[in-house]
## 1
Amino acid sequence: MTETRPATADARGFLAPDGKGLFGWIFSTDHKRIGLLYMYAILTFFLVGVALGVTIRLELLAPGETIISAQAYNALFTLHGVIMIFLFIIPGIPAIFGNLFLPIHIGANDVAFPRLNLLSWWLYMTGALLALGSLFGSAGFPDTGWTFYVPFSTQTTTNVPLAVFAVFILGFSSILTGINFVTTVHRLRAEGMGWGRLPLFVWALYSTAWVQILATPMLAITLVLVILERLLGAGLFDPAKGGDPIMFQHLFWIYSHPAVYIMILPGMGIVTEIIPVFARKPVFGYWAIAFSSIGIAAAGSLVWGHHMFVSGMSDMAILVFSLLTFIVAIPSAVKVFNWVATLYKGSISLDPPMLFALSFIFLFSIGGLTGLILGAAATDVHVHDTSFVVGHFHYTMFGGTGFAFFGGMHYWFPKIYGRMYNKKIAAAAWGIMFAGFNMLYFSMMILGLRGMPRRYYDYLPEYTGLNVVATVGSWILAAGLLLMFINLFRGARSGGPCGANPWGGRTLEWSLASPPPAENFETPPVVTHGPYDFEEGPARP
Amino acid sequence: MNFFLQSDTRRLLVQGRKLLLVAAFTLLATAGANSGENTGPGPVHQAGHGETAEPAKEHVHVHPQPAAATEVGLDEKLGAAIPLDLTFRDETGRTVTLRDLVTVPTIIAPVYYKCPNVCSFLQGGLAQALPEVKLEPGKAFRVLSVSFDETETPELAHRSQAIYLDAMRQRFPAAAWSFLTGDPENIRSLLDAAGYRFQRQGEDFLHPVAIFVVASDGKIVRYLHGTSVLPMDLTLALVEASEGRIGPTIRRVAQFCFSYDAENRRYVFNLFRVSATVILLTAGAFLSFLILRGRKNPDRPR
């Protein structure tokens, strides 16, 4: 089988047409093709989410009705949340870069269950289209926010059941990917690929996969309960029938808090791959980083109550959840310190992936430290439900995971397409995004501290100034994103050839041609060195 | 009463634990359907969370009777106008018409002064928020508490006013917050116009907990639900009233707040335990399988 397929960069590796056209992609069980399918779908939804976000900001440019009605605004921020959370940032890195590179990283030719992998993609697409489909029902898109809090979500006349069902299906896609990755890492490692030689990106994906397996079923259960509540009047969340609306919040956050670690851990994994390569130094504290991933996954599963400090929980519960929240800061800080220690005395080159990785550290640190303000009950009650929370969340999720995602795109792009993008434009796009990002979300945090509530359509005139700053920031950010995507698109179409290893990386994907051949490794590889042993590796091109 | 309902549900949940999770869902759904027939006290109104924890003591606010429950509620009539020619007596005993009082945007709080808890919380919440509203009381807005108990007198209203003015420590002028009492016809026509459905239960009342804001022409621009209001929400509502804009209802969730008791929590934790156990056991079995099977022979062709 390998003989019949061309395996050189010139022949375009796994990208080479196999004569089946579109079906050769949408029914392919090749992990790399599935990864790219995910990438195109996820980036499309991401751009839709960006457009919605920019519209929300535009509405908030001035107090009162600016461009859309209040109901449309409610639907818009719900849709923005649902798309960005469930269609972009949760599946994003594992489904795209995990699929593309996890098997190669461990020296395997595919994931453990290739057909299950394809099924995950189909489930993802089904869920995504159903979610968008709920836009067009006569009832209108849900106006509940992406959290679907009861009792509102069981009472609003909008199309909640369909949207909830869509998220339910997306959850299954996530669980299947998690099972697939865990099995792959346990069963398919190449000879010589011990646990201590796994790239740290794989450790991050492995930890994430466990969270997906353990936490996502809770989301599925919760969403089924919401549907039962709406359609059958089960009364689980209705105090008039002996139910409890707070139970929904518990169930929801039992999934959705670990979910933020599903979002951030793979991003940290990418950053951990980029930094040693561009500092030309073995990563500092391999095991500390590997176990901090497991630590974040474990501790992060026990902190959901910090979303509910003002829900009327007991003081004891608040104390415990607050303490556990602070404990998550430890493995997170371990990672940050290890990255910085890796940079120390390194031979640093500021290529675009590195710019994204460095800004990740900066933005994630702001996101993480503002998280402590929210994790301490005494300060949280003052900023709860203000735009401070929105600012914090975007610093961790967009400044963190988003920038890591773009870093990964710039890092692996030459490997995927065998071509290089324009590095200067990439750096310029990064700079524009970084500036716009801070303008947008830092203003939101200040607004929140001054009392501007989140999700409000209208505000008092005294908040106008900073809202204008934030909205202008959103335009700059969107312009940077557009420039970045155009540059990458042009690179994929007509960039110059880049060779097998443009960055001098030591993980296994750089030992293959670019793009990798369809079968990955013609003969099962034998791994003889760790992922970050630069001393004996090739010099940086 | 709620207690029986909960034990029903709990029994079903115990059975559910023995079966698979799927079966548990079916049972829960059945429990929900049954409970609808049995009793189901209707919309429950906000009560002090700590106050009503004793299960033995029947409290009209928290557990209204089913028949009455359907009668009580709030139909928002945003944009409708309240009749301004109604007459009431203010806390000094003087007869006033609404037209005399509603000359500026006005917050109207339907309460009764002898109310044992929620109305006091509602007015206490107002007393907390009003001094923070950044508009001039009396000039830019006014507050009216209106008793829907026709047996209450201006003396009682006066005493009530004194309490809340004291609570605000002179940071709010007495003239800007009137406490009205009136006869049944006037009370009915005011509250009907506002879509506010209440019912007498002996000494007490079943009633929704909400205030509303009217513009100076009597048009209803916003409802604010629950016992605590934010100064910002009040300000926004008043600004809208002065501009004649009609705003959407926010923080409606508060209306469905409920008296919290330990029984509910047990039932929450049962559901937690069932699902968590199943998930953890499955994942544990999966991990043991992976560890025991170890690595696949790499030489074996795929």
## 2
Amino acid sequence: MSRALRLEKNRWRDWVAALQRAATVIAPVHLHGADIAFDRIGSPAEATLDFENTQDSPKRFLFPQVEPLLRYQRNGGYQVQPLYDEEKRVIFGIRSCDVSAVRFFDLTLGVQDLPDTYYAVRRANTGFISLACHQPCGDAFCICANTGPFLSSGGGYDVQLTDLGGGHYLAEVDTPKGEELVGAAAELFSPAADENLSRRQALDAEAQKHFERDPRLYFAASSRKVSLDNVGEDLWRRMAQWCVSCGGCTNICPTCYCFNVTDAQLNGAGVRSRRWDSCQYPGLTREASGHNPRPEQLHRVKRRIFHKISYQYVARDGMQGCVGCGRCTRVCPGVRLGIPEIGEGIRRAEWK
Amino acid sequence: MEVMERKPNIYLPQIARITDVRDETPDTKTFVFRFRDQQAHDHFTWRPGQFVELSVFGLGEAPFGFASAPTRKENFEITIRAVGALTRALHALGPGDEVGIRGPLGNHFPFDEVQGRNILFIGGGIGLPPLRSLIQNMLDERDKFGEITILYGARTPTDLVYKSELKDWERRSDLKFMVTVDRSEPGWEGNVGMVPTLFPKAGVKPDGTVAYICGPPVMIRFVIQDLVSMGFADEDIISTLERHMKCGVGKCNHCCIGHKYVCRDGPVFSYQQMKGLLE
């Protein structure tokens, strides 16, 4: 389904205020300095839609860095009680790449035949109002991942906003939840005209011309080599030399969801929690005996790339695990060991 | 907003009580469990090869394969060697103590597909318990299978698990059982040598035989090589893969080998499937 509406540009905060009556709104806010990141907002005035992309994706609102799963208590026998976070949320102003990452979570964590219980609860209670990108951000290559700069129907958003210029947003409503979201302030919306829709198409086409990076990332070539294990250990080793195993790339990645589970106990009562883990840490695969099937950093860099771009995973999950946001490149303290750099290194079979 | 139909929580353990503990070796014990809740107990069943995530509350969870057969399901057994913090804590527990159980998890050994064929079990050390689940199951439906051969090896005679059950297997006329140890001890009159040294003595032949192998990774590797060179087909060599697991349900990404999850796609794989894994 898809329905196109129009919203006056200077009224979007009124819509946010209306949404806040039924849900917590998570929106881009200014942090210290120039950084912009997602956070819960109090007043709609805290939110901004004037940004390229947020520092991190809103991943932590669906899959928190530390998440309690259950409480256990010994009272005679053990009592175990699951802990659910059922807060209603709207994520406002999420970019196309990060919406696509949620779609990836739906296919993996939330996969139909065995959904992750805690993810499913949060997901069902979260609405997504996205903001299409007129100007792709510097490190982005969403165009290669088919995850931006604009999304089309079925792309994962409930409502997609496009700044049409001339004082209006186009609001494409794509789901029943999207109808609920615009219904919260129906008076702010009017039907879109044909010229609004053609303007949207023109902006999409124009945005595709403005990638700073060569948008021809040749995922196909690197992906073929990775899928066939044709990269060569020496190249992996040379790339991994620059990796300090910090886990920054996987923490910032909107599609990474490795986690560890731990119990913390006090006076016979305890909480079992999960927290983000990383394939870049040696401990992820280390066994009780001390044996580690991925003993060197090169095996761990290889692992990350295999999970992100191999055909095997695309076939398994129905979607590539990299959405092209470019954050891994930006966050890497080594030599920008991001997916585009590694992808190109693999394609050319060389590394600086 | 629509009322969501919530599926059962895949991370929520059921409470089970230890009903019995048997010493197998100085560092290995067999635990017998029964769910505290009668309904949970009545509904619980599994297939040999599957495993559970066992919680020792306060220390977390670890995966363990079933050591007993679903055909003997009044209780279920798990044989555990004390190697880490959780297993050592478990070894300190006794009858009446409670643990958490999630499962059954993972796939299982081929069973229906191999009816009528000859069956060869090759177990090494603590690798015998998951095979015992299948052995008991097949012996309880003995007429469905051809010849059954069980070959078992351990480091020393002291390290052999299920010592009294091994004697029963030795006495049975409807199966061939042979055991060997790497290093002898006073009083041991049996075979000495690695498990493959039993192959000629047991007359191991590929004809229509399916081989199930469990043991330390290095043993599995050598046994598979030997079986392949004897002419066993890759798909008739069945083993289990082991990786550090956490969630047991294919979410946390600890146990991946290539794009497969040992916990969800395995732990049972044929040699043919193993060869296709990229890591």
## 3
Amino acid sequence: MEIPYNVQVREDTGLYNSKLGIWLFLASEVMLFGGLFSAYILLRTGAPVWPPIGEHGSIMHILKETIPHATFNTVVLIASSVTMVMAWVSLKMKDLRKFRIYLGTTLLCALVFLIVKYFEYSHKIHEGFVPSHDTYMALYFTLTGLHGLHIIGGMIVLGYFFGPGIKMWNNEPERFTNRIEIVGLYWHFVDLVWIFLFPILYLLN
Amino acid sequence: MSDSHHEESFWRKYIFSTDHKTIGIQYGITALLFLFFGFSLMMVMRWQLAFPDQAVPVIGGLIQWLAELNGFASIGNLPSDLYNVFGAMHGTIMIFLGVVPLVVGAFGNYVVPLQIGAPDMAFPKLNMTSYWVYFIGGVIMLVSFFLPGGAANSGWTSYPPLSVIATTGQTFWLLGMVFLITSSLLGSINIIVTIIQLRAPGLTWMRLPFFVWAQFVTSFLLVLAFPPLEAAGFFQLMDRVFDTSFFLPSGLVVGGEALDVSGGGSPLLWQHLFWFLAHPEVYVLILPGMGVIAEIIANNTRKPIWGYKSLVYSVVFLGFMSFIVWAHHMFMTGMGQGMSIFFQTTTMIISVPSVIILSCFMLSLWGGSIRFNTPMLFALGWIPMFGIGGLTGLPLGLSTLDIHLHDTYYVIGHFHYVVAPGTIFAIFAGIYYWFPKMTGKMLDETLGKIHFFFSFIFMNGIFWPMLIQGMAGVSRRLADGGESYAHAQGTLHLNEFMSYSAWLLAIAQIPFIINLIRTLLRKKAAEPDPNPWRATTIEWTDTTSPPMGHGNFEKVPTVYRGPYEYSVPGDSSDFTPQTSKLIKDR
């Protein structure tokens, strides 16, 4: 038994199944981050000063130091989105070698992002700015933490297509290209979330 | 894709199956067991309400063992701490582990692909995953009963600050919910893609059976409403595990001591995020039920459903509106007059499509030659019961009346009329209706009718007195049923009546259980009638009973007409299948 429109596009909808599936998944992700962002708005508007002043004072001075790191990370993530598209385009042009280079670059960018994030986290925790310090820190760690988990999840999938998953190219090139397109859509979404996180957590204080 | 002819191992065929029919049945059995378990919790609670602090008969020893395991004193009675646990878990289990998996997981999975002429769901492996993620979520919930302090005890709504300072059971509840939410998300994405992509040739949107429309809207509600609760769940986990203060305001004092947290959070934030899910959730519970009822009414009145297009537009509008009514659960939180007026208005508006749907069903009965079989009896019982549920909800939508009715048994009576007879009658109707398709055997009509009439009587016996108690001002969630409250004394005698009704309702389910087991054990006819109800939709007309393994159909059906073409003038039979090209060609 074959599920129809698994690879081919259905004429009246113009979609193959998993493309519709990923858009619905992203819609639910928008609602997830919508919930997270609405918490940010509610807690911030309810706070007398922002970021709130806790046991170790205000996070402001550390935040100012980390803006360059976060800016660097923003650039890295946008670059990874570009290479992600290039990887997909390479497959469309049937160039597997270029695909591997671009996908590898995407993975590398993601890794760089996480390493920078790790140093940011440990610096803050070292200075006593742990999640329980104040509501800003709580939001900072929860929002960037969940975003980081999305990056790691994406890396696992990309890593699979970089490694063992690539075998599908030999037998079902079209299906493999679709898969890369779909994981690419997810990757752009994760990137987009960061584009929102960056200003609200670092710049607008 | 696997070759459909080779023999599959037991594990592939029954446990880790990717066939939507097997997964639907897995969902159905698991959810029915959870439904029974959730009901059992309530039966114990009803003992405590009727006879406060007396030892529970029959299972007193078990209750004592569980209470002592959790660290509560008990002489075989239900201590109030454990009452709170049972209350919170009754709600959680009934909604998230019982009804939703039944209406969406079981019926949606089994019936939708058959009704739209699809070989399976769009993503069979994802389908299997969503069942097993649900299963894990259920196991986590069950395990939490044995923790010190018991399972979650802050109500199914888990309002902070109480839930944040509650015992470990709450952490398990949150983890379990993350699994259940994930399962629902995967399942509903699958259903939407299946409906959009895998409709058979000729099956245009306005030819879809109403059940498919209901599932379609329901799935959208799940996809869009559940994630904010997931976000809230993460926040509450952070509050509990990492001592953050998302939901804890400054200066909170617990047990005479200031809580050692930073504060600055907002308990209202949880309520907003929670009800943003939990109100659409009400429609998740009821819309598939409406879908089932539409199928059965059209089939058993032998005429087209009245106002098919109005039904479809209403259900879509209902789904949309259900996202902007949530704060009518929060009138008494002091969120402000402007908010109350907005949500009161939207709440009044959302009642309109519900009334249209109910009216269409009632008008469908007019002039039909009604067959009073068991599915139809449940459908006919459903109409007034859901009507009572809906109408008792209108006063609750008015913020001024909430001053009196808020948090009373009136609320409990109202939503149980919607969810218990409303949804569960639809589930029973659906089981009696589609059981012959799933197994090739008809359930016994006499036992079915006994099941229906007694269930109908005792459900009203439980829920009607709640409305009376609530109007007298008796609060919900009192472990003694109001015995220690002066204003509750006038209606206290109703507690025993409701409890007896609840236990009798349990006994009324025995004919159903006997019926299921007896029919399953019976030998199947050599060639079971694929269409015993003489229905028009694809799942009856173009498959065998049960439908063949992977693939469902010998050849892909083509659809030529609408879903409910009964008693078409000029046709020799009183039903014209969706897949018959010409009238009289069968």
